[in-house]
Design brief:
Two copies of one chain form a homodimer. The first copy, chain A, is α/β, with parallel strands linked by helices. The first copy, chain A, is about 25% helix and about 25% strand. Chain A has two domains: about 5-125 and about 310-335, Quinone Oxidoreductase, Chain A, domain 1; about 130-285, NAD(P)-binding Rossmann-like Domain (Rossmann fold). At the A-B interface, helix 7 and strand 13 of A face helix 7 and strand 13 of B.
Chain lengths: ~350, ~350
C-alpha cells in the first residue's frame, strides 16, 4: 500500500435535471494496493464526457449506474506505480477506467499502454481515445460520407464533433458544424477547416443552416438531439444516414417536451426519405480500435486532424467542469489534470 | 382505337382525413389507342395498396401526387389487345401501372410479361408482386432475421405482413403477428403458420404482445405506426432492426397526436438500444426483383408460403374497397377484379 491519501469524487445524490455541485462529494480515502493481476495507477488526466450524466441516473441504459457513494466512472491516463501484472511495468503510462480519483487499482488486463513520446498523453482521452474512435467508427460504419456529400455535426468544437467534421473533409465531403457561440464557430472554420459553422443560439439559426447546406444534408451525426435535431430533420436528403451517438440536450431533461407528439413526423420522414437512423456506442465497434487509432494518429501526424483541449486543474474542479460541459461551456475536449 | 368505352375512377377531390366516396368519381371515356412503342391492355385485376392514400394528397413524398381529375394510379395485370412494341404480343398477360381503369395504353418497355400457367395472374399484384417483394427485400436488406430471433409484424394477414412472417419462419426465426380481429389472428396462426398473433383491439394487447415475445423483439417490420408502434418500442431488444415500409395508421391523420412529444423517447431508445430504423420502398431494391420473385415462387411451389386474396368485383367497387383497406377491413391482399 502506498502512503498518503487518495482524493476521490463520489456520487452523493442522483441529479434531478441539471447536476448541481451538491450531487458530488470530494472525499479522501486510503490509497489502494494493487491486488493479484492488478496495477496501481496514479491518474494524471481524467476525461469528462457527456455519457457520465447517464451513469448518474438509475434509468435503464447500456451500462450500470454509479452507486450512491461510489466513485464516478471515467477514463483516465496515468502512471503505473505498482504492478502485479507481468505485462505492465512500473513507470508505464496507461489508459484505463480509473474514475474520478487520484489513484486507482486496475486489472492489468484492462489497461492499455500509451506511448508518451507519440503525442501528449491526454490525447488518449480525446482525439486518440474514445471520442476520436466514436467519430471514426460512427462515420465509417453508419454515416459513410461520400465525396461531395454534406455532413452536419453539432457540438462541432467538442471532442467528437470536431473529429467528425475533419474526417468528413478528409473523405472529400463538405463539413458543416453547429456550435454554441460565434467564437466556437470561428475556431471550427478557421482552425479545424470546416466549410461552415452555425451558431445555434442565433435567432435565424434554421435559415442560416439551410443556407449553409444548399444541397441538403446527407449525413447528420447526432450527438445533441433536442431543438437542433428538429431544425436538421427537414433538411435531410433522401437516403440520409444518421448515426446516433449522443443526445446531450436531453440528458438533464426531467420531463418530456410539450406536444404535439412529433414521433409521427419523424417516422414519416424516415419512410418517405428512406432515412437510416442507427444508435451506437463506441464499444460496438471495439474490433476497429487499432484501425481507428492508426488512422487518427496518421492524420494528426500529417496535420490534417487538429484538436483542442479544455483543461481543468485539480480533481476538485471536476464537478464544476462536468456541469459546465453539459451546458456546452467547454471549448474542446474536456479533461481534468490531476497531477 | 378499340370500340366501346373505358370506365375509370378519377380523383374528384383530395381526401381530408379518411377518404370518402365523394373523393372519387367513376367516369367513362374513349378507349385509348396504343401509341408508338405502346401496348393497349385490358386490365383484369387492379391492386389496392395503402401507398395510394399518399398519392391522393399533395404533401411532398417520394412520388408525384395524382392530379385532381386524373386516373388514380395503381398496378394492374391484364391482357394485351393491341401492341406497337416488338417485345409484347397481343394475348400476352402483363403487369403494369394501368391505374384504376378498364383499359390502359402503357409503354411496352414498362410492362412485364406474366406467365399465367405458373400461378393465378392476380398474384403478380400480391405475393409475387410489389407486396411480396416489399416483404422480401425489407427483411433481407434491413431486418436480417437470424434463426431463433423474434420478428414482429403488424397487418399480419395483409399482403405484406403475411409474407414477412412466413419468410421469418422459413429463416428459422419466430414470427409474431399483430392483426385487427380474432378471426384474422386465427388465420395467421392456423393457416400461415405464425407462432402467435395478437389482436391489437384487445384491451390487454400490450400485455399479450409482451407475453408472446418473452425474449423481446429483434426485428419489427413497420407498416402500421401509431399506437402499435408505441407498444412495440419498449419490447425491442438491443440491436433490433426496424424496416419502415408503411405507416397506415397515420395516412388518414389530419393532425398530430397530442403531446407530450415522444420523439425524445424514441431517440433515447435508438441510442441506448442501438436500434436501426431504415425507411425503404420496394423500388430501392429494384435490382433484387428477379431474385425475390424466384425465391417467393419457389416457396409457393413447395407449400411453405401461403397467401390469401380479398377480391372486390368490378371497378365501381374500388373506392369502397380502398376506404375499407385503410381501416383494416380487408382480409388478405386487396384486389379488384375488372373483367
Amino acid at each position: 500500500m502506498a502512503e498518503g491519501t487518495n482524493k476521490k469524487v463520489v456520487l452523493k445524490s442522483r441529479p434531478v435535471g441539471e447536476p448541481i455541485p451538491d450531487n458530488f462529494e470530494l472525499v479522501e480515502g486510503a490509497i489502494p494496493s494493487a491486488g493479484d493481476g492488478q496495477v496501481l495507477v496514479r491518474n494524471q488526466f481524467l476525461s469528462l464526457d457527456p455519457y457520465m450524466r447517464g451513469r448518474m441516473s438509475d434509468a435503464k441504459s447500456y451500462a450500470e449506474p454509479v452507486a450512491i457513494g461510489g466513485v464516478i466512472v471515467g477514463a483516465t491516463v496515468g502512471e503505473v506505480i505498482q504492478s502485479n501484472h507481468a505485462g505492465v511495468a512500473i513507470g508505464d503510462t496507461v489508459l484505463g477506467f480509473g474514475g474520478w480519483q487520484e489513484f486507482a487499482a486496475l486489472e492489468g488486463d484492462e489497461v492499455q499502454k500509451i506511448n508518451p513520446d507519440l503525442a501528449p498523453i491526454s490525447t488518449a482521452l480525446g482525439v486518440l481515445g474514445m471520442p476520436g474512435m466514436t467519430a471514426y467508427t460512427g462515420l465509417k460504419n453508419i454515416g459513410q460520407p461520400k465525396a461531395g456529400e454534406t455532413v452536419v455535426v453539432a457540438a462541432a468544437s467538442g471532442a467528437v464533433g470536431s473529429v467528425v467534421g475533419q474526417i468528413a473533409r478528409i473523405e472529400g465531403a463538405k463539413a458543416v458544424g453547429i456550435a454554441g457561440s460565434d467564437e466556437k464557430c470561428r475556431f471550427v472554420v478557421d482552425e479545424l477547416g470546416f466549410d461552415a459553422c452555425i451558431n445555434h443560439n442565433a435567432p435565424d439559426f434554421a435559415d442560416q443552416l439551410a443556407k449553409a447546406c444548399p444541397d441538403g444534408i446527407d449525413v447528420y451525426f447526432e450527438n445533441v438531439g433536442g431543438e437542433v435535431f428538429q431544425v436538421v430533420l427537414p433538411l435531410l436528403n433522401d437516403f440520409a444516414r444518421i448515426p446516433v451517438c449522443g443526445l446531450i440536450a436531453h440528458y438533464n431533461a426531467t420531463e418530456l417536451p410539450k406536444g404535439p407528439d412529433m414521433t409521427a413526423v419523424l417516422m414519416r420522414q424516415i419512410l418517405v426519405k428512406r432515412l437510416t437512423f442507427r444508435g451506437f456506442i463506441v464499444w460496438d465497434f471495439a474490433e476497429q480500435e487499432a484501425e481507428a487509432k492508426k488512422a487518427l494518429a496518421g492524420w494528426i501526424g500529417d496535420g490534417s486532424l487538429k484538436y483542442k483541449e479544455h483543461v481543468s486543474d485539480g480533481l476538485e474542479k471536476a464537478p464544476e467542469a462536468f456541469i459546465d460541459l453539459l451546458k456546452g461551456g467547454n471549448f474542446g475536449k474536456a479533461v481534468v489534470k490531476l497531477t
